[in-house]
What does this fold into?
Amino acid sequence: MNLVQHGAKLRGVAFGGAEWLDHLPPPGQPFHVAFKPKINEFRGRRTAEMEIVDWRPTGIEVSGDPLTAP
It folds into this structure.
């Protein structure tokens, strides 16, 4: 998928994320993502992309520090 924020567009990939497809918001609607930044090297070309590891709809707040959560 292509993800856009403040006019910057990056490719996002979600390995094993096919089960998310029916639940993602329609194109153009915002949502939050957790990702790992990656450099993709393919056929001699290097591009930046985001490996999506999780997502949630906009408007759902999460409390606490995820790095210290049990």
